[in-house]
Write a structure and sequence with these properties.
Length: 137
């Protein structure tokens, strides 16, 4: 019986929910294992049955505020440094950022220059694809 298992019998296993610190580590590990930024929907699916949406949202905000997680321009969440090479996904609908001040600080200038989040995403896609083609293998 692991230390997170509270009760176990032949029909049921009851485990305790992870602490906030454990949840932060779990979120970062999930992203690290995937090797790319994940959407809210993907994170929620990975953690369904473990934690609720409100708790996940609070943990993500804390990680963003501490610069351990970066909210990408397309709304996905990646580890610090992933924003340098990430090719954003074209989004049909962009939800509001979890940490608006951090989002503005990181992406605001690009959004201003290009005119909108959609235009900034398109610009980043084009630039990252050009960079990939230019890199010798």
């Amino acid at each position: 019986m692991s230390n997170s298992v509270v009760y176990e019998d032949n029909d049921i296993v009851v485990v305790r929910a992870p602490s906030d610190e454990e949840l932060e580590r779990i979120v970062k590990d999930i992203i690290l294992k995937r090797g790319r930024p994940l959407s809210w929907k993907e994170l929620r699916r990975e953690l369904s049955g473990v934690v609720g949406e409100d708790r996940l949202r609070k943990v993500l905000i804390r990680l963003i505020e501490r610069d351990e997680i970066v909210e990408m321009i397309d709304g996905t969440f990646g580890l610090r440094g992933m924003e340098e090479t990430y090719v954003p996904a074209k989004t049909k609908k962009r939800v509001r950022p979890l940490a608006p001040s951090k989002f503005r600080k990181r992406w605001g200038h690009l959004i201003e220059v290009t005119g909108s989040i959609s235009a900034a995403i398109q610009y980043l896609i084009e630039m990252r694809l050009k960079e990939r083609k230019a890199k010798p293998r």
